[in-house]
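Lab channel / #folding
Pinned by the channel admin:
"Please post every new chain as: sequence first, then the structure tokens as a reply. Keep commentary short and put observations after the output so the thread stays searchable."

First post following the new format, from NK:
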Amino acid sequence: MSTALRWRKSSRTGSADCVELAWPAAIRDSKHPAPTLRAALAPLIAAVKSGALDPRRTPPDAWS
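Reply from TO:
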């Protein structure tokens, strides 16, 4: 993975323990920055915003 990625941490995090994103396709744990996960972030962000991944709204067995 390129070191040129610009990692962003949520401004709402209260500690260093969070997930960081680098657009367009990388996710990492701020506590353990390596390894990173390559993923299509746009669909993930859309699912989070819509509430589709909220277990209170959708049972986990329906996430596939």
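NK: The longest strand covers residues 32-37.
TO: also worth noting, The two ends are 27 Å apart (CA to CA).
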